[in-house]
Amino acid sequence: MPQSVERWVERIRSGDSRAIARAITWVEDEAPEAAALLNALRPVAGGAYRIGLTGPPGVGKSSLTDRLIRLLRGLGHRVGVVAVDPTSPFTGGALLGDRVRMVDHALDPGVFIRSMGTRGRLGGLARSTKDVLDLLDAAGYDVVIAETVGVGQSELDVVHAVDTVILALGPAGGDQVQMLKAGIMEIADIFVVNKADLPGADRTVRLIRYMVDLAHRRGWRPPVLAASASEGRGVEDLWEQILRHRTYLEESGEGRKRRLRRVEDAVWDQVLARVQGAFLQWKAARPDWERVLEEVANGRRGLEDVVDEILHSLDFSAGKAEGGVL
Questions:
Q1: How much is the pLDDT for 256?
Q2: H or E element that contains 315
Q3: What is the pTM of this model?
Q4: Average pLDDT, integer, range 185-214
């Protein structure tokens, strides 16, 4: 890190887009600079409202995000966006990250948009997405939007990263709903049927409302909206429902619970990363590791016994392995 942590925090807090972009790259690459910077930024984060936009591919999530940015900028909000794309198998970067995304906002100093690759991670978000959301929060953006990769019912990570989850569906959504209802349908706070100018939208809205009624969810009842991002219709209603949900979270105490779950999830991610790092270092120092695997494979040793010995040998506090042997 060519400058002190304090100087980087100052630059990021002032909205320096180059500093923000560099910091996000460190976070994505898990560079040594990232941990110290994030530790310094998290105490000043917490002011942004976080929105997750998820749903199947092709329903117009990016178009909805674009329209929402326009609306929010008109209201005077600063907006940060993390758009998670599939990972290129060749470069490891976002497969669609080089496309011109939301080009109208490229020169707006009140908007920061970053594409990220999943890097093979399931769940709709990249491993570092939550850290990047924290970074944009600390940078002073009022609203931070996480747009997931769009792979269907496995996109459940978003619920642990944001305050309000929006599920977007297309007008011919009957089959989509049947596919999604076992997973992601349960985490949506707001449903939006985009491309409402096309046939089938009204039927999809009715179907989702019927499913919401069947769910008998206590507290917040997810609204079902129709929108057309291409025509700019329904975005104001969407923002109104987001504000209603924000009020509900504050008044019911659910917002505090979600923030605590978000922190717990971040702690768990760090624990897993620390354990994984310690194990890899431990394994690299064990010339007899292949022999141990052979013994387990041949039934001469129990898998649980090996795991117990490994856990006993690892020094998690330092993230390094002690000198234990199998």
A1: 93
A2: strand 314-315
A3: 0.82
A4: 87
Count of helices and strands (H, E) across the chain: 11, 9
Q: Whole domain around residue 233: which residue ranges?
A: 46-252
> Which residues are registered as beta bridge partners of 84?
116
Phi-psi region of 168 (alpha: psi -120 to 50; beta: other; left: phi over 0): beta
Are residues 287 and 241 part of one domain? Answer: no
What pLDDT digit, counting tens, does each position of 74-123 carry? 999 999 999 886 544 334 444 444 344 556 777 788 999 988 765 444 44
96 belongs to a structural domain: yes
Q: What residue has token string 């080089």?
A: 98
pLDDT mean across residues, the chain: 82
End-to-end CA distance of the chain: 39
Q: Which residue has the higher pLDDT, 76 or 172?
A: 76
Residues 75 and 187 in one domain: yes
Angle at 67 between CA 61 and CA 68, to 5 degrees: 85
68 in the same domain as 25: no
In SS3 terms, 157-198 reads as: HHHHCCCEEEEEECCCCHHHHHHHCCCHHHHCCEEEECCCCC
Residues 301 and 283 placed together within one structural domain of the fold: yes
Does residue 25 contact residue 126 with C-beta atoms inside 8 Å?
A: no
CA–CA dist 312, 305 (Å, integer): 11
Q: How many domains in the chain?
A: 3
